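Example record

The entry below shows one chain as it appears in the dataset: sequence first, then structure tokens.
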Amino acid sequence: MQTIRWLELFSLFIVLPLLFLAGVKHFGPYLLVLLAGVGGVCLWLLVSDRTFKRVRLWNWQEGKPHLKASLRLFLPWALATAAIVYFWLPESFLQWPAEQTSLWLLTLLLYPLFSVIPQEIIYRTFFFHRYKSILPTHSLRLGASTFLFGFAHAIYGNWLAVALSAVGGAMFGVRYLQSRSTAVVVIEHSLWGCFLFTIGLGSYLSLQHCV
């Protein structure tokens, strides 16, 4: 059973991203479709598993305090990040809202629904439950999830996407372990993602230069 789990993990979280990266010019436009499909399969496996507590998909009662904590963390670090982008990449700062307003608004609308929700189901809810038998401690699952989440973002072809995603993966993983709420982590992930697209890092977190 453990061998099967390792093979599943390797295939889903390493082989699949590598295959996508190899064919990114052909498959890039279908990234959200792939995410939705994989997320749907992972969700089906979760709800079909009697050992999985479905309340963890929302879990508002336990999650609310952690949602407030995520907002307290966001405010100072968002200001610091905006300042860094302003001085480091002044030509990109607020470029999407100013020059590609329709694309920016569409991103804010669709990104949480079709990107964040599948990612959090796959890399947090599914990963932390599915691989408990082969990664028996929280720290092992958190470390593996963080690494693999960063690794998956190598499809964007730049180190910044990998670094930001690894940091985000660690933050979202800790939040999920604390709150046991997919919904809380989806909100936090959406907040950070929409913020990064807004301040000028959208080109680093999309496939527009790869396809």
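Notes for this example: The radius of gyration is 17 Å. The first helix runs from residue 2 to 22.
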